[in-house]
Design brief:
- The structure is a single chain.
- This protein is 74% helix and 0% strand.
- The protein is mostly helical.
- The longest helix is centred in the last third of the chain and has 23 residues, at 304-326.
């Protein structure tokens, strides 16, 4: 249920191939293999350790591709982002960027790709901290790396979608339903991307983000088909027990609430909550947002019993959130 981990959450065949395809040094593969089982159980601290072990292996200058060892930094940062530990994510990414820059012997497509991925991830880290100008700067770095590359694999990489979504979210944060955000999302939704399977997943992400954009612009009618297509695609590609699917369901639930279709909205919100509760730490902001929506829907439907139960969960979440923020 987690976006872009290597080797976590790929098919069994892809898990066997992933470390070698992404340039992991042989001694790092055993540590990487241990990440998936603990993430499936939602044990983030246990998942963190293999990446920290991998980072302890520094480039020795003798490998064919010495900057391959920066990938644990990227994956560790993505784990921290998932946990909303944004300061740690930023530190891991900056260390990875420095290592990659010093280790690269000469420009290469792989190094260019990794630079784009680091910039994109750093952009999300800044975005979630409300540092929109910094997020826009590094997001545009990734954007130009993907768009202007001479290699078609970068120009049509599925990760270009994530960069376009990032830039759209930044623009919509400053002006909800912005024209600039719309242009980025139209590009993400409208053009083809390589990567069978993953391409469909990332394309569905662009669709539910376009639905989010339409909601911000006050157009729930335009939002609904994008949200429904995203949910349908993600159910087919990743199943229900996946955070991408949960996010798509939440956006669709919001759209349906705006249309007073409260019962169907509640079905989607409940499904999203079940997935989030299984995979995210209890303080996570997405859990809080989903519980708040569920409370609104139970109240609208006159379901007092479930409303009381949801309010108890909301209070528990507030306490967990306060405890988490006290450590930041």
């Amino acid at each position: 249920g987690f976006p872009y981990f290597c080797p976590a959450f790929r098919s069994a065949v892809a898990q066997r191939r992933c470390p070698q395809e992404w340039g992991w040094a042989p001694e790092l593969v055993p540590a990487a293999r241990r990440v998936e089982p603990v993430l499936v159980q939602g044990d983030f601290r246990e998942a963190e350790q293999p990446y920290l072990e991998a980072i302890s292996f520094l480039p020795d200058g003798e490998q064919e591709d010495p900057d391959s060892l920066v990938l644990p930094h990227l994956n560790l940062a993505k784990l921290y982002i998932l946990e909303e530990r944004f300061a740690e994510a930023e530190a891991a990414l900056k260390e990875g960027i420095a290592t990659s820059t010093s280790a690269a012997r000469e420009p290469s497509v792989l190094h260019e790709f990794r630079t784009a991925l680091f910039s994109q991830s750093l952009g999300w880290t800044y975005f979630h901290q409300g540092r929109y100008d910094e997020a826009r700067e590094v997001g545009r770095t990734a954007f130009h790396k993907f768009r202007e590359s001479e290699d078609s694999r970068l120009r049509y990489s599925v990760h270009f979608i994530d960069t376009l979504v990032l830039l759209a979210r930044i623009e919509d944060a400053g002006q909800p339903g912005s024209a600039a955000g719309r242009r980025y999302l139209e590009t993400a939704v409208g053009r083809g991307f390589s990567g069978a399977g993953l391409g469909d997943v990332y394309h569905a992400v662009a669709q539910y983000e376009f639905a989010r954009h339409h909601v911000l612009a006050g157009n729930d009618v335009a939002a609904e088909p994008y949200a429904r297509i995203a949910v349908r695609t993600l159910l087919w590609e990743t199943g229900n027990d996946n955070l991408y699917t949960a996010r798509a369901r939440m956006i669709l639930a919001r759209v349906l609430q705006l249309q007073s279709q409260d019962e169907e909205a509640l079905d989607h919100a409940n499904s999203a909550f079940a997935t989030q509760w299984s995979y995210l730490p209890p303080y996570h902001s997405e859990i809080g947002e989903t519980l708040a929506l569920m409370a609104e829907l139970y109240e609208a439907l006159g379901d007092k019993e479930n409303l009381r139960a949801t309010r108890i969960l909301i209070e528990d979440h507030r306490k967990a959130r306060a405890a988490f923020e006290a450590t930041r």
